[in-house]
Amino acid sequence: MDQYKKSPISRPPTLREIVTDLVFRYTCLAFAWLTIAVMCYIVFEITWKAGPAIQEYGFGFLTSQTWDPNTKEFGILPEIWGTLYSSTLALLIGSLFGVSVAVFLSEGYLGNFVFQVLKLFGVQFHRFWGKMPAAAETALKNLVELLAAIPSVVYGLWGIFVVIPLMRDSCNWLYENMGWFPLFGTRFEGTGMLPASFVLAIMILPTISAISRDALVAVPPKLREASYGLGATRWETILSVILPTASGGIFGGVVLAFGRALGETMALAMLVGNVNTIKVSLFSPANTLAALLANNFQEAGSDEMKVGVLMYAGLVLMAITLGVNVIGALILQRATAGLKGLN
Amino acid sequence: MKNTLFKLGTYVALAAVIVATTGCGSGSGTKLQGAGASFPAPLYTSWFKEFSKSHKGVQIDYQSVGSGTGVSSVIDGTVDFGASDAAMKEDEMAKVERGVQLLPMTAGAIVLAYNLDGVDQLKLSREAYVDIFLGKIEKWNDPKIAATNEGVNLPDLDINVVVRSDSSGTTYVFTQHLSTISKEFAESPGTNKAPNWPVGTKSKGNEGVTTSLAQNPGSIGYVEFGYAMKAKLAMVTLENKSGEFIKPSIASAQAALAGVEMPADLIAWLPDPEGKESYPIVTYTWIIAYKKYESEEKLKVFKELIQYCLTEGQKSSESLGYIPLPETVVEKVSAALDNITVGK
């Protein structure tokens, strides 16, 4: 019995342990609640400040197309359209590239390539070079994720100085030869929807590729083996077994990326042209809610109504983002419901 | 042992960070914080740099955030001085308890810069450039443009108008001029720091517009003369009040300034200057000082700074594309410094 008490494993917790345990637990709880409280406070504050504008403009704010501080006419339909359009476009381009990169990184294509190169020199199993294939994959994965660390302004400048000049000739060729097609219906003047969406696509690519890669890696090996065992080729396995299995995770990444695309500010303010028009054409300048806020907030300062109008626009942006995330979560739930029990 | 060393290292690093962050705040020097117009920003930045060099321990920080923000920062009291090329309105001045003193510091011309392959000389009549900014002229080969440009091969290309996206004094001065010469413009967009433009893509700051113009063939926009000069953009020769076509230059802008008398509050406008040699779009730009400063130290440095700008500074303005103030104006501004005192 005496021996039992002295054992380090079964001794009762000391007072110090109990206290630190409690402190830790309540600190965590407090921070969790604080996060929720801050969130609620932000929503409350924005709604409060938006109050006068909501009363003044009501629902018409969402359907009117003029933004004129002089006559105090405010409407954000073009911005809502621009926000959704640019994000959707960016998502199309971004998920195409993002999922491809994820497949490339998770299915051993790069590793195999490096292995073959090493084999040419006959050093594929050498103790220095043997780990190269795996290292190359990790390096590329980190490199893609590093895209997320580049500041938004740098993306904007890159868009202005590199992307737009690169696009100009081919876009204007499309306009001149296929101008009848609504997507190519206007001349490409520089800033506009396409360069904005393209740069946005690159900005959300790390989110999509990182999450998709994790989802692909998590697909149980037995599925792969079973598929190969049935005689499927590598591509058949990827397309009809692995991708559908990981689709839940990939979709989750896409929804997250969409959220980021909706709220992206600086790069868009620099590239989208900031013009209140609703056009289907990819080449015409447009505007987004976040860019509108970025451009007008600085000097709204002392004017209560102007702040109110901008807060109202911010509220709409929040509602859109929330809506997208809720819909995404619902679809995700339904999509993954059938896959339970696989793991 | 290793652990102790690591801990020690952390403490040293932490201490270094604390010293570094508090060090700049409580340093021996005086710091003046200014913000506002992007129009004179290149000039101010060079002045302030030179001034800091010759005055040890004095740091002057200027942020080129646009006249609108310049004025609102003065009202909010977040800066030591503001800058604006739309001056300040009566009701804005009334909001500042400490009172404000506007000091014209320099003057500049607003030019129409453009980017059009193969066209290095472009003349625009008053009607033509108003119509471009009203969206009524959409093509470069429009007859109204062609009329004043005989022998120039104008392409059949859409005009891409570039305007400012932020609240801007440059815009204010430019729209003031357009409103003066065109009734239609006065009615619809009107004189404003951020008007509702009927056409155009928008870029932020003089810097942004300059970049947009340089990057996009077929575009035209308004920027401060110095910015256009530095970016080597082609500038339009504009028709003035007397019907002459005037090239933007320091001399033609000086000619415009010569005809204006500076009033007692130092706010003078030249919406459409008289004179055969005058360039049509010229403006003074102001530094906004408080009438009362809490710290004697700050006030002393501020007055020294302004004196420096009015004397030594004026000499370097031409090389950066700004117009030196006329002698009479320098005297008036210098005298106005006496209105600024210590107090609450």
UniProtKB/TrEMBL annotation, chain A:
Membrane-related topology note: Multi-pass membrane protein
Keywords from the UniProt entry: Cell membrane, Membrane, Phosphate transport, Transmembrane, Transmembrane helix, Transport
Transmembrane segments: 23-44, 84-105, 146-167, 188-211, 238-259, 280-297, 309-332
Record localization: Cell membrane
Positions of the ABC transmembrane type-1 domain: 80-328
GO BP, one annotated term: phosphate ion transport
A GO-annotated cellular component: plasma membrane
Molecular function (Gene Ontology), one example: phosphate transmembrane transporter activity
NCBIfam families named among the record's database cross-references: phosphate_pstC
Its job: Part of the binding-protein-dependent transport system for phosphate; probably responsible for the translocation of the substrate across the membrane.
Homology family: Belongs to the binding-protein-dependent transport system permease family. CysTW subfamily.
PANTHER family: PHOSPHATE TRANSPORT SYSTEM PERMEASE PROTEIN PST, PHOSPHATE TRANSPORT SYSTEM PERMEASE PROTEIN PSTC
Record protein name field: Phosphate transport system permease protein
UniProtKB/TrEMBL annotation, chain B:
Organism: Bremerella cremea
Signal peptide: 1-15
Molecular-function GO term, any one: phosphate ion binding
Keyword Transport attached: yes
GO biological process: phosphate ion transmembrane transport
Pfam families found in the cross-reference section: PBP_like_2
Record-stated family: Belongs to the PstS family.
GO cellular component terms listed in the entry, alphabetical order: ATP-binding cassette (ABC) transporter complex
Protein's name in the database: Phosphate-binding protein
Known role: Part of the ABC transporter complex PstSACB involved in phosphate import.
Tagged with keyword Transport: yes
Subunit composition and interactions: The complex is composed of two ATP-binding proteins (PstB), two transmembrane proteins (PstC and PstA) and a solute-binding protein (PstS).
Keywords on record: Phosphate transport, Signal, Transport
Alphabetized InterPro entries for the sequence: ABC_phos-bd_PstS (IPR005673), PBP_domain (IPR024370), Phosphate-bind_PstS (IPR050962)
Domain PBP positions: 30-302
Gene: pstS
